[in-house]
Design goal:
51% of the residues lie in helices and 14% in strands. By secondary structure, it is α/β, with parallel strands linked by helices. A 6-stranded parallel beta sheet has the order 5-4-3-6-7-8, with helices on both faces.
């Protein structure tokens, strides 16, 4: 909504009050002009329109001044008395209408929308549009903000917008309380802005996410879309419209669980590179093999049971609604009853999965099971973030929260376009390879989650690299991780992948010569990232790192050196 529309809305609401003020002024003005007065000689005279308007101005506004140019006659004073009450009543009505207008939800929304559009248009940095600021959206916004990526948020629930406004982010987050399913709202949010790098549809309604994905692909097909989905039919519909990344948290958790069963090092590498920078990750415990009990055979339960069975586990299923979940071979029950767990063989089990959609039931299932078998390995599903204190106190071996899974998956696509590609290739490597990579990263970067970013050897950002190549010098990967200080030591940066044309090199050697068009995925500390960007842009600094000598500043010096 633009400024002209807001002005039109204000004028439409103020039409009656303004007309009343104008009519009251006109009546009072005409009366002052028509009613004769008396000058200091007793002669009749009439006020001019200007004098009448001047008197009315300080009378109607209750300022008060006096009777000019001569004392009023009785008729004039009677009309003055009438004009005071008449115009003041009109002013009271107008002021009341103005107060009511600015309390009106429609105008407030129009002003917020106009301010939101202005904030989005003023963004001069790449940004992502996040549709939905629930548990998933808030986690993703926090992670993106810590990765120094700008974000725009659409959320339909006012209380969630209030939560956003009270959260302290390092960058201002433009936000609007509106329905992201509406194409007009998506246009307000800047999907046609050249700085928009992608859209994440993360509402808790699959059909709303589908509508957002379809609208984006119809309005701007080349814009990447990440969409949360739990229903397979909706997911297929999204795929038919070309949604770039369809994220099913239960399917992804099942894949991660299988990765943790079969390749613990690869799982840890994945977790380490997709969490928010600065987080600490405890080494995951190995999942024991043997008899398992799974309570709940919904979307989450099916994914976990499939992964466990593929890992040669013996799984007994407990399900309260076998027909609804299409569970053909299961024990009927919720799992909170002790006799149901004993029927499933809880005494001889080595692990239990509490995977219902009710957090309290999941906690009750595990507590009941541990009374019989306290050594159980516990996988528990947490549905709502506000239950964090309960789950933190419980301290399960694996706690799955859909919002965390979705946020980490989105982060791997958003923070660095090459990161998701690296992680996909890492899944095809051996567990020993993943462990070696983790050891190298920890030794160089420490145990906290590092920042990840990608660079391309072209354009303004790599101006210094390209300039030195044109001068006949040959920068290497090592030069991009060197500190420009006098000792020229290596910074806490590790190149994870080098893409050159169709070739991909995992953990490339630092001695690798750089070429135009190379794309490099790096991870390291945030300060090192800033220094690296400066080095790639400043030709004098990079010349010193490559050659060990200062670059002459004048053309005479450069001629003499040549």
């Amino acid at each position: 909504m633009n400024l002209n529309q807001i002005i039109f809305l204000i004028l439409r609401r103020m039409r009656a009050p303004l007309l009343m003020v104008i009519i009251s002024y006109a009546i009072a003005l005409i009366g002052f002009v028509l009613i004769p007065g008396a000058d200091d000689h007793g002669q009749a005279y009439h006020l001019s329109f200007f004098d009448a308007f001047y008197i009315l101005s300080y009378t109607a506004t209750t300022i008060g001044f006096g009777e000019i140019p001569y004392p009023f006659t009785g008729h004039q004073r009677m009309w003055m008395t009438f004009s005071i009450y008449f115009t003041v009543i009109a002013w009271f009505y107008a002021i009341g209408a103005i107060i009511a207008l600015f309390q009106e939800a429609t105008l407030k929304q129009a002003i917020k929308t106009a301010r939101f559009q202005r904030d989005v248009c003023n963004l001069r940095e790449p940004f992502y549009l996040i549709c939905g600021y629930g548990e998933t959206g808030s986690e993703l916004v926090r992670a993106l903000d810590r990765n120094e990526l700008r974000v725009v948020v659409l959320e339909i629930a006012p209380e969630r917008i209030n939560d956003l406004e009270m959260t302290d982010y390092q960058f201002y987050v433009p936000h609007l309380c509106a329905d992201a399913k509406l194409s007009e709202v998506l246009l307000y949010a800047g999907i046609k802005n050249p700085m928009c790098r992608g859209v994440a549809a993360l509402t808790d309604d699959d059909h709303a996410n589908l509508a957002i994905s379809v609208a984006i692909k119809l309005i701007k097909p080349e814009l990447p879309v990440l969409a949360r989905v739990e229903n397979d039919v909706v997911a297929a519909n999204m795929a038919s419209f070309g949604t770039d990344h369809i994220i099913n948290p239960y399917k992804i958790f099942g894949e991660h669980l299988a990765m943790r069963l079969n390749s613990l090092g690869t799982y840890l590498l994945h977790e380490w590179l997709t969490r928010a920078p600065g987080d600490a990750i405890a080494p995951p415990a190995a999942i024991p093999k043997g008899k398992w009990i799974a309570c709940g055979f919904g979307r989450f339960g099916k994914s976990v049971v499939n992964s466990l069975q593929n890992g040669a586990m013996d799984v007994t299923i407990i399900e309260a609604d076998p027909q609804g979940t299409q569970c053909e071979n299961c024990i009927v029950g919720s799992g909170v009853e002790s006799h149901i767990l004993q029927e499933a063989g809880i005494e001889h089990a080595i692990g239990i999965v509490a995977g219902t959609d009710n957090d309290i039931n999941n906690l009750a299932i595990v507590m009941t099971a541990q009374e019989v078998n306290p050594k159980l390995f516990v996988i528990i599903r947490k549905n709502k973030r506000h239950n964090d204190p309960l789950f933190d106190h419980f301290n399960a071996d694996i706690t799955m929260q859909p919002s965390d899974v979705i946020a980490h998956t989105c982060l791997s696509y958003m923070v660095s376009p090459m990161l998701a590609e690296f992680l996909a290739n890492a899944r095809h490597q051996t567990n020993a390879w993943a462990n070696a990579v983790i050891a190298q990263l920890v030794s160089k970067l420490g145990e906290q989650v590092p920042d990840t970013w990608d660079i391309t050897i072209e354009g303004e950002m790599a101006f210094a690299v390209c300039s030195l190549m044109q001068q006949g010098l040959q920068p290497t990967l090592r030069h991009l991780v060197m500190s420009p200080s006098g000792k020229r030591h290596e910074m806490p940066v590790v190149p994870l992948m080098l893409v050159r044309g169709d070739q991909k090199s995992m953990l490339p050697e630092l001695s690798t010569p750089l070429q135009m068009g190379d794309k490099i995925l790096c991870c390291g500390m945030d300060q090192a990232k800033s220094i690296q960007r400066y080095v790639m842009h400043d030709i004098k600094t990079l010349h010193y790192i490559v050659t060990g000598t200062e670059m002459p500043e004048t053309w005479i010096g450069r001629w003499l050196k040549s």
